[in-house]
């Protein structure tokens, strides 16, 4: 049981960097005042919506890597290889992190970079599992979460050999309550 909890917590911690909802981290665009198009610019204005429709039909998710600012590309560099596979909401979440990044303390920036590298190294299935574990642990009462964190700290203190030994032990399924029959 302890091993299962520790494994779940490890994945959740990896996903913690991306735990905020896209609505909180999505870039907020200020409404731009509409200007009347110039007569010679009218064909270009008509071409832009057509290009957007064509991109949507082709399955292009925006913003693309090229559309990011140079600063955003530098911060999000660990995600470059996988960027084109990310859903729009995930891209917006990462962009929100990149926007907050310059205001972070150096040690926070290092932590974000470490977690981003770890996240980029995960397979899509491991990422899905990490998100699922995070959601599950987020539902756990704060007292129990505190216990889980203590168990995780205890696990981290183990030597690599002790961790390997723990991983080799079979995990017993959690005990289920028996239903009372009338």
Brief summary of the model shown:
This protein has a domain at 2-22 and 61-166. The chain has nine helices and no strands. The protein has helices at residues 2-15, 22-25, 42-57, 70-75, 88-100, 106-121, 124-138, 142-156, 160-168.
Structure, described:
This protein is mostly helical and 182 residues long. The chain has a domain at 2-22 and 61-166. It has 9 helices and no strands. The protein has helices at residues 2-15, 22-25, 42-57, 70-75, 88-100, 106-121, 124-138, 142-156, 160-168. Helix 1 (2-15) crosses helix 7 (124-138) and helix 1 crosses helix 8. It is extended. The relative contact order is 0.17.
The total strand number stands at 0
Q: How would you sum up the major sheet?
A: none
Instruction: Assign an overall shape.
Output: extended
Helix content: 55-70%
- Note the quaternary state here: single chain
- By DSSP (H or I, 4+ residues per run), the number of helices equals 9
**Low-confidence spans: pLDDT under 50, at least 5 residues?**
11-57
Give the averaged pLDDT, no decimals: 74
